């Protein structure tokens, strides 16, 4: 029998819904605040139990609060995910057909790339090749800006990658639709877009997982095949 939802749970869910995705430290603060406001028992190490109670009540609605990791800095994030529609179709109510097509093509470029990024030049070159309705480059730039604002894409120095929210929400979609190339990280077992690949056995690891795993090793070796890890370890440059 699921534990009952309190006003603290309901407030927590409301705030998370309004944000779509929140960083772990923000979620921990929110947990404490909600318990304090509604005078509900609070323990800093009971966040997962607190979320589990909410998830048990969200189950009939095919929704769930899920935890994921930012591929850029390794920080934990929490997002509210719609389980009933795991595909890009869930975005259909917010975007036009040609905007969705641009998003799909951008996703193709990112997932099929070697480093998990696609340049704005490559994406904008797709704008006038859309089957649904061609886009002018100026228009496509505006659409990309909206995808970033809505936390489907992240942009850094003219390079685009999938936002943490997108990875958490669309992990199953990506794994099933890109099964030839989409891989899970050998360390944290979640989908890895920005990653390094072992040249000997082919396992992949998120950059933050690489950094953490090899931190204490003088000679980095693959956790799977024990061969020398030939990539530069992120964060070790002086």
From TrEMBL:
GO terms, biological process: double-strand break repair via homologous recombination
Pfam families according to UniProt: SMC_Nse1, zf-RING-like
Localization: Chromosome, Telomere; Nucleus
Keyword Zinc-finger listed: yes
InterPro entries to which the protein is assigned, alphabetical: Nse1 (IPR011513), Nse1_RING_C4HC3-type (IPR014857), WH-like_DNA-bd_sf (IPR036388), Znf_RING (IPR001841), Znf_RING/FYVE/PHD (IPR013083)
A GO CC term assigned to this protein in UniProt: nucleus
Enzyme class: transferase
RING-type domain segment(s): 185-226
Keywords tagged on the record: Chromosome, DNA damage, DNA recombination, DNA repair, Metal-binding, Nucleus, Telomere, Transferase, Ubl conjugation pathway, Zinc, Zinc-finger
Catalytic activity, as annotated: S-ubiquitinyl-[E2 ubiquitin-conjugating enzyme]-L-cysteine + [acceptor protein]-L-lysine = [E2 ubiquitin-conjugating enzyme]-L-cysteine + N(6)-ubiquitinyl-[acceptor protein]-L-lysine
GO MF annotation list: ubiquitin protein ligase activity; zinc ion binding
EC number: 2.3.2.27
Domain of life: Eukaryota
Protein family per UniProt: Belongs to the NSE1 family.
Function noted in UniProt: RING-type zinc finger-containing E3 ubiquitin ligase that assembles with melanoma antigen protein (MAGE) to catalyze the direct transfer of ubiquitin from E2 ubiquitin-conjugating enzyme to a specific substrate. Involved in maintenance of genome integrity, DNA damage response and DNA repair.
Subunit structure: Component of the Smc5-Smc6 complex.
Record protein name field: Non-structural maintenance of chromosomes element 1 homolog
The species this protein was found in: Cuculus canorus
């Amino acid at each position: 029998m699921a534990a009952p939802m309190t006003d603290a749970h309901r407030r927590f869910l409301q705030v998370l819904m309004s944000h779509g995705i929140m960083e772990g430290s923000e979620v921990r603060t929110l947990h404490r605040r909600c318990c304090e406001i509604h005078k509900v028992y609070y323990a800093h190490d009971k966040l997962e139990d607190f979320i589990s109670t909410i998830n048990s009540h969200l189950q009939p609605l095919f929704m769930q609060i899920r935890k994921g990791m930012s591929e850029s800095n390794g920080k934990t994030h929490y997002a509210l995910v719609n389980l009933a529609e795991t595909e890009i179709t869930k975005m259909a109510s917010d975007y036009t057909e040609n905007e969705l097509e641009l998003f799909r093509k951008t996703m193709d470029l990112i997932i099929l790339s070697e480093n998990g990024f696609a340049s704005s030049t490559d994406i904008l070159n797709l704008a006038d090749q859309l089957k649904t309705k061609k886009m002018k480059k100026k228009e496509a730039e505006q659409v990309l800006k909206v995808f970033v604002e809505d936390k489907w894409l992240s942009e850094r120095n003219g390079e685009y990658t999938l936002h943490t929210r997108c990875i958490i929400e669309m992990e199953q979609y990506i794994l099933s639709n890109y099964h030839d190339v989409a891989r899970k990280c050998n360390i944290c077992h979640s989908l890895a877009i920005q990653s390094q690949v072992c040249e000997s056995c082919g396992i992949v690891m998120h950059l933050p997982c690489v950094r953490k795993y090899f931190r204490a090793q003088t000679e980095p070796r693959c956790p799977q095949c024990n061969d020398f890890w030939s990539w530069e370890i992120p964060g070790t440059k002086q």
